[in-house]
């Protein structure tokens, strides 16, 4: 999956597990950029009596690099605090929760937002409320309206939301990790079976989302409006992270923990599937601990990806051109580590410089399209992945096809991708999600209720 349980240590710590990051020009407010960072993977909706929540002991951060050095120029920090209103009941709620300040909600959660701008710290919002989880029609009636009331405005003009959302990432999880048995053409697999439709392994599940909608002028290095797609100032790098304090002490008599010391990063995410598929098992935890500026250490895995060697083995005689391709994959390095420079794709660039860093790179000057193509750049839609990442972008198919050779002609015009490359897919799209996306902030859909799951 994009980054759900993608490394041994973070798989043990779901509250700090950064699962997906999205960054796109807001379709209904094109002078802003929306950034979504998801945490706490694979939430079953019927999760009582202790429903999911952000960690009070986790520092959640969204980072923006606007000068291409792989280090944050702007960081939005989020700290959460959970209250227990009635400790003498086992219930999450003692009646219907019809408003965020309802006394029936026994475990409300509040948070603060702090901006770190080149070392200067500014509190943008405090005591902001998250919505409860979607329990069911009796406990959380009219949940969509209730969650909508948890969209807050910050002091500089940003909008923010933090709370449970329907999982937006779609993938045939069961087939991908069963020796890359892609159902639509599993008849060609080394261990064949009849071709079938893809199955969305995340359908009906939930995540916890931190969402920001930020005016473009607050993101550029000089306050410009990002109107020229050829201007380097229009391109930003985006990633998210989670950190815990260095020392944790368990209280043996009360079942509680105390944390102290400096913050240590335990999870991060920029491009989807980077740590999941590109980084090998022995380096995954290390990758989660370092900033993007140090990703030159992992460049060798991008230039010679294991998956590109496995595909021709798992699909014999289907990918002969890919099997014969031995050159370093400079196309993948451009997509994942530096951005795509001008001149390779007509009218497009999201190049951030020579620093190799895993970040979502968004050219903010490229406007949203009225008819988005879920294959993004591969579908000739310049507003889609790997130009940032939209909710509808089929990143699994895009990255599988790129690894299989679809993008190598950008580097070597003589290379001809195998005919099967255009057919590579796990067979799942956003249409396979349990609920649709919203057409306004925070865009991710209303989570399925526990009662209806």
UniProtKB/TrEMBL annotation:
InterPro entries: DUF4331. It holds the Pfam family DUF4331. It comes from the Bacteria. This is DUF4331 domain-containing protein. It comes from Reticulibacter mediterranei.
């Amino acid at each position: 999956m994009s980054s759900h349980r993608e490394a041994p240590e973070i798989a043990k710590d779901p509250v700090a597990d950064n699962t997906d990051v999205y960054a796109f020009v807001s379709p209904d407010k094109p002078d802003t950029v929306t950034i979504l960072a998801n945490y706490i993977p694979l939430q079953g909706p019927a999760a009582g009596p202790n429903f999911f929540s952000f960690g009070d002991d986790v520092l959640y951060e969204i980072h923006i690099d606007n000068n291409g050095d792989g280090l944050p120029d702007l960081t939005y920090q989020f700290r959460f605090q959970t209250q227990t209103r009635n400790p003498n009941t086992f219930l999450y709620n003692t009646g219907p929760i019809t408003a965020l300040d309802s006394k029936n909600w026994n475990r409300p959660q509040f948070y603060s937002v702090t901006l770190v701008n080149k070392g200067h710290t500014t509190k943008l919002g405090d005591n902001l409320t998250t919505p409860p989880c979607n329990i069911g029609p009796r406990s959380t009636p009219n949940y969509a309206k209730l969650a909508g009331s948890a969209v807050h405005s910050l002091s500089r003009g940003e909008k923010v939301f933090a709370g449970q959302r329907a999982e937006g990432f779609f993938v045939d999880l069961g087939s991908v990790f069963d020796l890359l048995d892609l159902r639509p053409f599993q008849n060609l697999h080394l261990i064949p079976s009849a071709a079938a439709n893809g199955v969305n392994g995340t359908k009906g599940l939930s995540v916890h989302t931190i969402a920001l909608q930020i005016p473009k002028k607050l993101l550029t290095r000089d306050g410009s409006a990002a109107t020229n797609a050829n201007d380097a100032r229009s391109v930003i790098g985006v990633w998210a992270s989670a950190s815990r304090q260095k020392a944790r002490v368990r209280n043996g008599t009360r079942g509680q923990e105390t944390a102290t010391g400096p913050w240590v990063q335990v999870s991060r995410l920029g491009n989807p599937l980077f740590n999941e598929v590109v980084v090998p098992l022995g380096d995954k935890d290390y990758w989660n601990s370092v900033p993007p500026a140090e990703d030159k250490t992992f460049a060798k895995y991008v230039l010679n990806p294991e998956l590109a060697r496995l595909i021709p083995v798992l699909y014999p005689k289907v990918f002969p051109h890919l099997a014969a391709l031995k050159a370093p994959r400079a196309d993948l390095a451009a997509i994942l580590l530096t951005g795509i420079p001008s001149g390779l794709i007509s009218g497009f660039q999201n190049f951030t410089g020579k620093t190799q860093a895993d970040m979502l790179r968004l050219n903010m000057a490229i406007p949203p399209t009225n008819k988005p193509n879920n294959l993004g750049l591969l579908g000739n839609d310049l507003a889609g992945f790997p130009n940032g990442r939209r909710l509808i972008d089929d990143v699994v198919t895009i990255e599988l096809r790129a690894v299989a050779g679809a993008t190598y002609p950008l580097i070597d015009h003589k290379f001809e991708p195998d005919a099967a490359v255009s057919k590579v897919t796990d067979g799942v799209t956003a249409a396979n999600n349990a609920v649709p996306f919203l057409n306004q902030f925070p865009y991710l859909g209303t989570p399925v209720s526990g009662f209806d799951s």
